[in-house]
């Protein structure tokens, strides 16, 4: 049962988004805290300056006010009529905080207007005041973050997240590729034993597992080949002796048939052991090769040429011939003639079909019969034929499936890729 997975589904994407988000939030938090700790002291300084100026302006007579205007001009300040006031209420936090502090300093009715275009501030002691104090707008640290700074922070966060996540996911990607090749029957290269200690130990254990598996495969093949080879010599002597037994013809024929059956079993063991040999892949005209293969088959095996020419495919000629021969033998043992063999090009390679006209196999057993030592009938052998096909196809990076053909019979399908 397939369950819907949350997006995103890959480790790289999840870690990238988490780390990039944390880096971005940390950068914004640092910027925000910096502004807060800088803006509050500046708001206090602004409020104190404004309070001093307002106190001074309230205490001056009109004559004294004119005398102090020249001094105020040197400070960038001007006393103007209230009708000249322009702008809106303060939106920047530092200005709004300064105005609130000014209210608490004894000027509860003070008003502040901001003219952003002319970058001017207008300060009045109360709404009905006839005069206002004009001053240049300060440059508080609480200004909004410019877009290019935000873009730079975002870019650096993404870059840092990518580099951090890549250090973790790159070895895991190599491990995943190695496991996939191992599962496909191929022998992957050793992983680089570098990087952090955890990933380094993981690579070391994977490489050691590969060496252990390789040794076990070699030992198994040696045992199969050795035992099978040693058994064939006495079986040959038994068969020759049976030919000269004084027994009745029927009994002698039964003994010889049993010996031949044992020899066939040993032959399957040898084929299974040899199916792991690393025969090189050679680009081959598959159409001509299949035609030559069919010519070596007995009557009842029918070749259906493809409508279009088959491409050249890299194959192990001996190995693929052994696999197809096992499929043909399996069809002859468990099915009925004719045995139809056909091939057709696909988008990424070639599809080969071997079909008999027998009763087929129950749907529930189609997967099970492909396992080693599985048997679907009384055709003889030990059930290694399809396992040999599976193993050889793994070296071709191909696929092998069994289906019940429409109209009856079992159909074996081999898909060979155009590139391994």
From TrEMBL:
Gene Ontology molecular function: ATP binding; phosphorelay sensor kinase activity
Keywords noted in UniProt: ATP-binding, Cell inner membrane, Cell membrane, Kinase, Membrane, Nucleotide-binding, Phosphoprotein, Transferase, Transmembrane, Transmembrane helix, Two-component regulatory system
Pfam family, one: HAMP
Gene3D superfamilies: 1.10.287.130, Histidine kinase-like ATPase, C-terminal domain (3.30.565.10)
Domain HAMP: residue ranges: 166-218
Membrane topology: Multi-pass membrane protein
UniProt key word Magnesium: no
Reactions the enzyme catalyzes: ATP + protein L-histidine = ADP + protein N-phospho-L-histidine
GO cellular component: plasma membrane
EC number(s) given by UniProt: 2.7.13.3
Matches recorded under PANTHER family: SENSOR HISTIDINE KINASE ENVZ, SENSOR PROTEIN CREC
Protein name: histidine kinase
Annotated source species: Acidithiobacillus ferridurans
């Amino acid at each position: 049962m397939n369950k819907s997975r949350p997006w995103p589904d890959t480790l790289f994407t999840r870690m990238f988004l988490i780390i990039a988000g944390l880096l971005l939030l940390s950068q914004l938090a640092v910027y925000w805290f910096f502004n807060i700790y800088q803006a509050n002291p500046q708001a206090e300084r602004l409020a104190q300056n404004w309070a001093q100026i307002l106190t001074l302006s309230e205490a001056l007579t009109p004559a004294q006010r004119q005398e102090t205007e020249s001094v105020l001009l040197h400070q960038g300040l001007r006393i103007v009529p209230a009708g000249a006031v322009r702008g809106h209420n303060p939106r920047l936090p530092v200005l709004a905080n300064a105005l609130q502090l000014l209210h608490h300093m004894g000027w509860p009715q003070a008003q502040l207007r901001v003219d952003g275009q002319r970058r001017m501030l207008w300060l009045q002691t109360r709404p009905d005041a006839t005069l206002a104090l004009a001053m240049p707008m300060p440059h508080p640290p609480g200004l909004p973050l410019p877009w290019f700074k935000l873009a730079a922070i975002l870019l650096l966060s993404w870059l840092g997240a990518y580099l951090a996540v890549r250090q973790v996911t790159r070895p895991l990607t190599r491990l995943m590729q190695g496991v996939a090749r191992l599962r496909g029957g191929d022998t992957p290269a050793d992983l680089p034993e570098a990087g952090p200690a955890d990933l380094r130990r993981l690579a070391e254990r994977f490489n050691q597992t590969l060496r252990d598996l390789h040794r076990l495969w070699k030992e198994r093949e040696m045992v199969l080949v050795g035992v099978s080879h040693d058994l064939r010599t006495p079986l040959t002597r038994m068969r020759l002796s049976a030919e000269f037994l004084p027994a009745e013809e029927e009994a002698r024929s039964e003994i010889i048939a049993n010996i031949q059956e044992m020899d066939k079993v040993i032959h399957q063991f040898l084929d299974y052991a040899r199916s792991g040999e690393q025969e090189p892949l050679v680009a081959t005209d598959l159409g001509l090769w299949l035609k030559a293969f069919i010519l070596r088959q007995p009557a009842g095996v029918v070749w259906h040429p493809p409508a279009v020419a088959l491409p050249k495919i890299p194959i192990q000629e001996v190995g693929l011939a052994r696999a197809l021969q096992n499929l043909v033998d399996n069809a002859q043992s468990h099915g009925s003639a004719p045995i139809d063999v056909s091939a057709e090009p696909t988008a990424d390679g070639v599809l080969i079909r071997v079909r008999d006209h027998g009763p087929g196999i129950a749907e529930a057993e189609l997967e099970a019969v492909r396992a080693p030592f599985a048997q679907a009938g009384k055709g003889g052998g030990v059930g290694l034929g399809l396992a040999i096909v599976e193993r050889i196809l793994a070296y071709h990076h191909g696929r092998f499936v069994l289906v019940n053909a429409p109209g009856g019979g079992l159909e074996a399908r081999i898909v060979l890729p155009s590139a391994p």
